[in-house]
Amino acid sequence: MPSISKATYLWILTIAIACCSAIKCLAVQHDLKEAREKLRREEELRNMERAGRTKAERRLRCELKALIRGQTNGGVCLKPIARISSPFKGRCGTPRQGLLAPNARGQIKLQSGICKTSLDQLNAFTHMWVIFLFDQNTNWTDALCSESESFTYTAKIAPPRLFGKRVGVFSTRSPHRPNPIGLSVVAIQAVDEKAGVIHISGVDLTDGTPILDIKPYIPYDVVLEHKVPAWVVCEDLPAWQLQVMPEAEAVLRELATERGSPFYSTYEELRALLRDVLLQDVRSIHKGRGTVVEDKSSLKGGANFSEPFTCNIDDIAVEFVALQNAIQIIRCSEEYRNALDPGPEDNKLVIENKRKSHG
User: Fold this and answer.
1) DSSP element (H, E) containing 102
2) SS3 of residue 156 by DSSP
3) Is the dihedral of CA 344, 353, 133, 153 positive or negative?
4) Tell me, which fold does domain 82-145+153-350 have in CATH?
5) If you average pLDDT over residues 322-340, what whole number do you get?
6) Spatial separation of the C-alpha atoms in residues 127 and 46, rounded to whole Å
7) Which end of the chain, N or C, is less packed with Cβ atoms under 10 Å?
């Protein structure tokens, strides 16, 4: 067998290496082409799926809107984001406007399902809007129990400052409205983001009121040129001072230091709250709002409006009379419950009982 020269061997080896490289290059090009084709097919499939999903979601929204419109006459479901703790356990004694009672304190605590970081930077503002539900409305419980779409609300109501005269409900801030939603401005005292709690003042909400939303108060909310009826800005109430009888003062001083209120720990703080609230005359028009003991008009239809009036403020029964020049607190006690002014838990019982009676 003839021997292969070294040069020939190297030539054959070079050709073999070149052929292997060429084959490997062709294989890589084939794999790359298949990968590109696979990527193109996946992108097309993803675009088709996205288009189909978007179309399906659009169709689902349309059907859902039609379903809601058909079942609830276009209504929507709102869930509370928070609850408020305040010194006012019932409607009687709750300020009609929070800014008129700057010493009325409260705490808004976020519900467990609301992320606490939602409060980030809220402490950079001094005031905020609170959107809430009038959950203690008596006509609201009637609306919940009614299955008829024709359930109606009183179109005209009598604001306290009009002393019996009626105007359209949408011309007032009355809680008795088709949708029992309220709006208040409160002052931000502190924000505890870790606990999910906002400490506020200027509160005009009852304890346990569901909060639907909060929004910061900004300069653009101020309307410089505005017009309101005279009865909105002018109220013919006497220029009262607050007087606390010695016996009542002794009880208030004791309660302020011993009962552990989350809002007031001194007599001076508690007295400031009572001054803010009582000097605005918490009595309704049917209970003698604006009348005084010496006023003969306080005897109307056999009702003696000169009798002492009692309300619950920070779990204290405050009994007072309206004199010519002063609101005079004559008695105070710790235990108080107004059976005619149910709280949130009582409202639940009222609703259940009404539903049973309707059923």
Assistant:
1) none
2) strand
3) negative
4) Elongation Factor Tu (Ef-tu); domain 3 (2.40.30)
5) 76
6) 48
7) N
Q: Give the pair of three-digit tokens for residue 89.
A: 């356990």
In the DSSP assignment, the letter for residue 110 is E
Tokens found for residue 139 = 């006509």
In the block, tokens 């359209």 appear at 168
Number of neighbouring beta carbons within 10 Å of residue 335: 7
Spatial CA neighbour of 200 closest among 57, 63, 103, 290: 103
Task: Please name the helix (run of DSSP H) or strand (run of DSSP E) that holds residue 137, with its range, or none.
Answer: none
**Containing H/E element for 69?**
helix 6-72
Cβ distance 262 to 107 under 8 Å? yes
CA 53/CA 226 separation, integer angstroms = 49
Residue 155 burial (CB count, 10 A) = 11
pTM of the predicted structure, to 2 decimals = 0.69
**DSSP-assigned states of every residue in 203-220:** ----TTPEEEEEEE--GG
- Digit-coded pLDDT (tens) for 198-242: 999 999 999 999 999 999 999 888 888 888 888 777 666 667 899
Q: Which residues lie below 8 Å from residue 306, measured CB to CB, with a gap of 6+?
A: 288, 291, 292, 293, 298, 299, 321
Compute φ and ψ for 119, nearest 5 degrees: -90, 0
